Amino acid sequence: MKVINLGETNSVLNHFIAEIRDKSIQKDSLRFRRNLERIGEIFAYEISKTLSYKSTEVETPLGIADCNLIEDPLVLGTILRAGLPLHQGLLNYFDKAENSFIAAYRKYGKDNKFNIQLEYASTPVIERKTLIIADTMLATGASITLAYDRLIESGEPRHVHIVCPIACTYGIDYLSKNLPHKKVTLWVGTIDEVLTNKSYIVPGVGDAGDLAYGSKM
After folding, report:
1. Alpha-carbon gap, residue 158 to 126, rounded angstroms
2. Using CA atoms, how far apart are residues 170 and 138, in angstroms rounded to an integer?
3. Distances (CA, A) of 173 to 167, 180, 207
4. Rounded to an integer, what distance in angstroms lies between the CA atom of residue 139 and that of residue 207?
5. What does the pLDDT look like over 159-187, one tens digit per residue?
6. Which residue range is the domain that position 144 belongs to?
7. Is pLDDT above 80 for 141?
8. DSSP 54-91
9. pLDDT category of residue 108 using cuts at 50, 70 and 90
10. From CA 78, how far away is CA 180, in angstroms rounded?
């Protein structure tokens, strides 16, 4: 698995990452969602550089222009609910993509131990398409792995891009061991070293779903 950390290069992305981390700014749910959307747009632009293109003639009012357009069929897959603003940012740029949605959550038991429950998936056929899976946080890596396994039931993708703006080393190591190496690229905005015994990333962000859409029961 190839790992690309966009945060290693100074850009406006780092400002958006800082704002979703900032405990004062992140209280504004609208701004939190918009920042995630803008982060998704930046990742979409960077991923677009890796795709295949074909030369296409476009008729203008004054003549014919030769344009290079994306050739790869794309599927955008998102883990509900925290991944939705990030998904929208990707979709803003890859507006012709098909879309997949995965419902997954942590089901807690005794001693704060949990299992990832995957209850629902809506997806087109993935066969020979480029799959982009988006989730705001990469903590243990279990949600991404389950989503990947569920989505490829509908076909073998040409390549998989995983977009997680906030990642930790534990989750990256987990994905490296559990996903095919040659077909997966992981895109992150920053990498934190600490994952607590409750599987929270530190310094992290907090609960991205709650910050974007309000607290849950």
Report:
1. 9
2. 9
3. 11, 13, 22
4. 12
5. 999 999 999 999 999 999 998 777 999 99
6. 2-52+70-212
7. yes
8. EEEEEEETTEEEEEEEE-S-EEEEEEETTTHHHHHHHH
9. low
10. 19
In this structure, what are the phi and psi dihedrals at residue 194, rounded to the nearest 5 degrees?
A: -100, 130
Inside any domain, residue 140: yes
Average model confidence (pLDDT) across the chain: 91
- Element housing 184 (H / E): strand 184-192
Decide if pLDDT at 139 tops 90: yes
- Cβ(82)–Cβ(136) under 8 Å? yes
Task: Return the biggest CA–CA distance within the chain.
Answer: 70
Q: Report pLDDT for 120.
A: 78
The pair of three-digit structure tokens given for residue 12, joined into one six-digit string: 């406006």
Of 207, 185, 202, 56, nearest to 132 (Cα)?
185
Quickly tell me which residue has 């600490």 as its tokens: 194
Number of domains in the chain: 1
In the block, tokens 């190496």 appear at 181
Q: Is residue 158 one of the residues assigned to a domain?
A: yes
The CATH number assigned to the domain holding 30 equals: 3.40.50.2020
How far is the first Cα of the chain from the last one, in angstroms, to the nearest whole number? Answer: 36
Whole-number Cα distances in Å, 157 to 26, 76, 143, 148, 180: 35, 12, 19, 10, 11
Confidence of residue 199 (pLDDT cuts 50, 70, 90): confident
